Amino acid sequence: MFKSMQISASGMTVQRLRMDVIAQNVANMNTTRTAAGGPYRRRLVTVQENIESTPFSQYLAHSKNAFSGKGVKATAIVEDPTPFKRVHDPGHPDADEEGYVLMPNVDTLKEMVDMISATRSYEANVTAFNAAKSMAIKGLEIGRR
Fold first, then answer.
1. Residues 86, 103: contact at Cβ < 8 Å?
2. What does the CA dihedral 95, 87, 111, 42 come to, rounded to 10 degrees?
3. Other CB atoms within 10 A of residue 30 CB
4. Is the pLDDT of residue 53 over 80?
5. In angstroms, rounded to a whole number, what is the distance separating the alpha carbons of residues 119 and 137?
6. What count of Cα atoms within 13 Å lies in the side-chain half-sphere of residue 128?
7. CATH topology for the 2-29+43-79+106-144 domain
8. C-alpha span between 24 and 79 (Å, rounded)
9. Where are the domains of the chain?
10. How far is CA 62 from CA 16, 56, 57, 58, in A?
């Protein structure tokens, strides 16, 4: 019972991290100069299943006895390699000799879609967590009667 709560909690943790990274991307969508030099580069969270890899036959034999899922984990925050946008703005302090400015590769539409996805995933994990909690409470009520 507690394993399902732990899996849901790991999902909520990862989705919270995704929301934080998305918020950072949106906040820096007009940042043309960073400490590293150049415009801000969009960041993405890589997520991985939190389980040991075993051959399928071993997994099948093991799954008959017990569920071995351990949730998910964020493995890294990586930079998006898509190219920067070139915007013609000769008055900008970071403009090149032709008047073009390299703008961050952050797209508001992509960020909003990712934000909705992270929010829905978080809500689904909350629902699963609450269902497991409710089943545990009902199980305890059975023992009292």
1. yes
2. -40
3. 10
4. no
5. 27
6. 19
7. Helix Hairpins (1.10.287)
8. 12
9. 2-29+43-79+106-144
10. 32, 10, 9, 6
